[in-house]
Amino acid sequence: MVILTLNTILPHVVRTAKSAGAFIKKERETFSYKKVEVKGLNDLVSYVDKTAEEIIVKELKEIVPEAGFLVEENSANEKKEYNWIVDPLDGTTNFVHGVPCYAVSIALEHKGEIILGVVYEVSRNECFSAVRGCGAFLNNNPIKVSANKTLKDSLIATGFPIYNFTKLDNYLEALKFFMQNTHGVRRIGAAAADLCYLASGRVDAFFEYNLNPWDVAAGALIIKEAGGTVTDFSGGDNWLYGKEIVCTNNLVKDEFFEVIRRRFV
Predict the structure, then answer these.
(1) Which residues span the domain enclosing 240?
(2) 45-74 pLDDT, tens per residue?
(3) Would the N or C end of the chain have less CB density within 10 A of its end CB?
């Protein structure tokens, strides 16, 4: 699939994300916490996640019929040469509590490489997108990572552990450092949005562990296309399936990564 083809299908993927987002937004108006299901400790889901995923899968099958799927709610699960990686509602806990910031995340993967990514942040009507080699965009306008050069001038984003607490002490040590040596730490509650906020220069670095491919696939490509860096905690490339990710604006990469390496590796 050549770049021209990817740029041709991108508007259709954006339309799909916005279609699912419109459904999510409408359901939030009358949503009741009584409709929430519990998949595991602090791991919530509802009919909204499941129906949004069904909407997305149906439309993506029409866009690229030959592609497989890796999706959070398992409405489709068959890997092929090209694969859609989908989170129909990233930030479900925010959604069920009525807290703004939840997103639809759609990525296209080919032989281990993410080649297209779309993240639609529903509450702010912001659509982030990228095709590999073609730059990153927010509502069709080009975006770039920040120009901050030091951690002391940086704002850090992260996600708190919600059920895997095996690295909690390491995590708290990192938080202590960032609280004392940066502009602060933000926990937005939707990793896909965190990554896009980094890509658009709102935050300067991000780290988290125990994330799944659908949490990071689209956002990571958008960061790379915006000029940022994406690695795992060891500085390698196993961020998609390795359940750990470090992202920066590139300028603070070495300083930020050293903090993470000392506390997690």
Answers:
(1) 151-264
(2) 789 999 999 999 999 999 999 999 999 876
(3) C
